[in-house]
Amino acid sequence: MINFAYNLNKNLVLKRNLFSNKDKNFIFDYQLKKLNEVWKYVLKKYTFYSIYKKENNLPDDINSLNEFNNFPIISKNDIIKNYEIIFNESKTNKNTFTGGTSGPVTRFPTGFVDSKKNFINQAFLRENFEIFPRDKCLYIWGHSHKFNKNLISKFYREIAKKLKNFYFRRLQLSAYDLSSQNVSQIYDHLIKLQPFYILTYASTFSSILNFFDFKNITYENKIKIILTSDNLSLNDYELVKKIFPLSELINEFGMAESGVIGYNKKNEFYKIKTLWDSFLLQSKEKNLIITDLEKRVFPLIRYSPDDLIETDDDISIFEFKISGKIRPSFEIKIKNEYKKISSIIFDHIYKFDKFIRSTQYHWNKDKKKLAIFFTCDSEVEKSYLLNKLISHFGSVPQNIDIFIIHDTIKTKAGKFIYHLKDEDFFKNKINLS
Description:
The chain has 15 helices and 19 strands.
């Protein structure tokens, strides 16, 4: 079924042959050729890119990767401002949403061709770790489909999810509720299922590790652990060795708008090897810049996702270290009981509200109080935002304050801040009292 839908075997052979060539000149020539193909494709299909070319006096043909590295950067705000015309010209009825963890929540057109390319890329990268599509998996993940307002869409997404999980031999558990009871159930499923690998967010796995460590739990079986979306702390990295002594830790780097971009080098968890055939990765002042080298529904051109990296090369990046973000968890008081909740849940509760430009968080450790800051593009009542929390949690969260602000809170350099600190309020002249 997989091979029929994605022509997987043929595509994997092609990628293996391509990546067997290590000659840098060959790679640069290949990337330049693919770049020009995509450049011509987007100029013909999207007014957004035609205007980008005209306003910046850009050439019809790109002569070198160095030349391209001087093209202006496209931000999430550029996509947001031009979304309607982009979506109309995309000829698709599907979107993917960023979670708002490294900038404003942003919609991108997507479709089957994107999921197909991403699946092939994942399968290729996982081969290096001897993980294959139907290996048994404990899948601790989000449930974005539950937050869609359309009941029919919810129903079909739920059915599709169950069919996928059945076919791929995955047991899917929620990554959102990280209370002691739920993490204890994750351990029970781990023992019962004996999966070949775990796939989850690094921030979720951090909470699981801390719980296991507190309970003196050690998992003695061989297992591979794929972590994505966040950066694992060095302390947690050491905890993995202690709690999962026979594990192999794998770092998947990617994002909703691009799909998977790379996996870590063997035995170097924090160093990512990139898919140079699918992406031209560059950087400016340590900011990652992504350009698609394949004709996806809406190819990214000089796109900045607001992720920070460390690399020795900024013209075409083959390896880099993530400086990125770690998503925090908060102790939310519901019905007089504290539950450890990943911040990811709030991203997904609100991500389908188009008028919300961004969501930011401040945790007062002493008072055990969470402040959520919403930047909205239209008038909205606090009661609406609160009711969405009540709908999800089944009760009023007792230690959450909601603030609606006109402008996103940023650093002095103008960069988005996901997890706010006290000094961010002072610098942005915001009074919480």
